[in-house]
Amino acid sequence: MSHVIRTARFLPLFAAATASLALFPLPSRADAPAVKDVLTTYANIAQAGYEDSLQAARQLKTSVDALINAPTEETLAAARASWVAARVPYMQTEAFRFGNPIVDDWEGKVNSWPLDEGLIDYVAESYGSENPENEFYAADVIANTSLKIAGKTVDTTKITPELIRETLHEAGGVEANVASGYHAVEFLLWGQDLNGTEAGAGKRPATDYDLKACTGGNCDRRAAYLSTVTDMLVEDLEWMAKQWAPNGDARKFATENEKQGLTAVFTGLGSLSYGELAGERMKLGLMIHDPEEEHDCFSDNTHASHYGDALGIRNVYLASYTRTDGSVVSGPSVSDLVKAKSPETDKQVRAALDKTLAKMTALVDRAKKVEAYDQMIGLDNAEGNATVQAAIDALIAQAKEFERAIAALDLKDIKFEGSDSLDNPDKVEEAK
Question: 74-99, pLDDT tens digit by residue?
Answer without folding.
Answer: 999 999 999 999 999 999 999 999 99
